[in-house]
Amino acid sequence: MPTLRSSINTSSEEYDKNKAAMDLLLAEVEEQLALARAGGGDRYIERHRKRGKLLARERIEALVDPDSPFLELSPLAAWGTDYTVGASVVTGIGVVEGVECVINASDPTVKGGTSNPYTLRKASRAADIAKENRLPAIHLVESGGADLPTQLEIFIPGGRGFRDLTQSSAARVPTVALVFGNSTAGGAYIPGMCDYVVMIKKRSKVFLGGPPLVKMATGEDADDEELGGAEMHAKVSGLADYLAEDELDCIRLGRQIVSRFNWRKLGPGPTMPVSDPLYDPEELLGIVPPDLRVPFDPREILARVVDGSEFDEFKPLYGTSLVTGWASIHGYPVGILANHRGILFSEESEKAAQFIQLANQVDVPLIFLQNTTGYMVGKKYEQGGIIKDGAKMINAVANSGVPHLTINIGSSYGAGNYGMSGRAYNPRFAFAWPSARSAVMGPVQLAGVLSIVARQAAAARGQAYDEEADAAMRQAVEDQISRESTALAITSRIYDDGIIDPRDTRTVLGFCLSVVHNQVVQGTRGYGVFRM
């Protein structure tokens, strides 16, 4: 297979400038991740520890296999909102007894692990990943149920979580609940609907209504243990399948349960030789310019991500603003689509549609590296059929049956986001580099469009146009869109699965490729009408 050759000069001033900008972005992301890891803060962490309990991430660390990876999902959910960064829950994929599992861990240091609207979104995304990729789910439960002041936003959609658990069981994909503390109200249904339940003596409490609610509703006096204690559920109600002595014993029993799953992946394993790229992944920090209007060659990224830096480019002389081709990552064959100079013309659209169909013919997953300003506009291009050609590409993406893995490495604007398998097109995983931007269009362009429309409206009314007000409006809009289009703003809304360090790109893609092969990997055998 042809080998990519890098032309990056790591000693150049341009490289140093790019790397310095990326280092600043990474530092900002790390600062926010530290807030997420801090949960409810020192006071509540100390109180939790005094009760002899492990933190959510410590429970996960004890659960997963030693020295195995844990891919945390949506760690910065709720950033920039009134809610705690991380949304009071830790979700991700870890390897337990050799089985890749989705793990959902309540963070009881944040309002007792109660669920707010962002908790719900984050948990729902994790459930989607479990369903699409046929992954067992392990719930580490310690939750007071709904965050009651936000009940209007979470009560109705919140029932979906229970539906997901029962549907997973019906699909013969196991679910496990390890109950570490209170699991009350809506939280009680999590163990109630899982296939396996482990509770801890004198620690786990599972009930629909606690003593005060029972007293108000029925007049009955009852204590926590009588209503929902672990021993009561193990000996009387039958809700608990296993009774643990302490938290570590609970985790041991959880691992024991997973070891009995007799789990087998349905997709093929790696079929290609595995070899490291020829170029150092550290160099990925200096490739993307801080000004995303400056183009960069995505082949430089591929040379530091794919096996052996080997890339069999498809149609290299046609539609050159989009790079397409075949490679492997950690032994998994992949097709790759990567934006080069940002704009998608008719040629790029047709090239992409054909390539996506080819990948579906041979059941090969697709990786999309987004750096696009969208489809080309203008009289020449409209008359040349950019709409119908762009529709071919979007048709191919929307109906593609092979797994898609999407990473926004630069900009992802307009319908280019859709054509390059953005979140609305259900990629199995979607991540972003810290440099990523995403919006309807760039801030300057969006503000300019609003200015033109306002100017035309004033002219139609025969009024003089206020240039000073226009300048202020444009600046305000540019500032707003700049804030709302950053990687942090996008990931906070769970429009992707997290911001990743560019140096981790190969590792993250390799792990995700292993995960998607838990499910059958099969391409679409038929498409909708392609407008010719």
Task: Describe the 3D structure.
By secondary structure, the protein is of the alpha/beta class. It is built from 20 helices and 17 strands. It has helices at residues 13-37, 42-50, 56-63, 117-132, 151-158, 160-170, 189-193, 211-218, 224-228, 230-237, 247-259, 299-302, 346-361, 379-383, 386-399, 414-419, 443-461, 467-484, 487-492, 505-516; strands at residues 70-73, 89-96, 99-106, 137-143, 175-184, 196-200, 205-207, 242-244, 312-314, 322-329, 332-339, 343-344, 366-372, 374-375, 404-413, 429-432, 437-439. The strands form three sheets. Strands 1, 2, 3, 4, 5, 6, 7 and 8 form an eight-stranded mixed sheet that branches. Strands 9, 10, 11, 13, 15, 16 and 17 form a seven-stranded mixed sheet that branches. 49% of the residues are buried. The model has no long low-confidence stretch (mean pLDDT 93).
Question: Could you name the ranges where pLDDT drops below 50 across 5 or more consecutive residues?
Answer: none
Determine the fraction of residues in helical runs and give it as a percent range.
40-55%
Report the β-strand fraction as a percent range: 15-25%
Which whole number gives the mean pLDDT? 93
Q: For the terminal residues, how far apart are their CA atoms?
A: 33 Å
> What class do helices, strands and sheet pairing give?
alpha/beta
Tally of individual helices? 20
Categorize the overall geometry. Answer: globular
Radius of gyration: 25 Å
DSSP E strands, number? 17
The major pleated sheet works out as: 8 strands, mixed
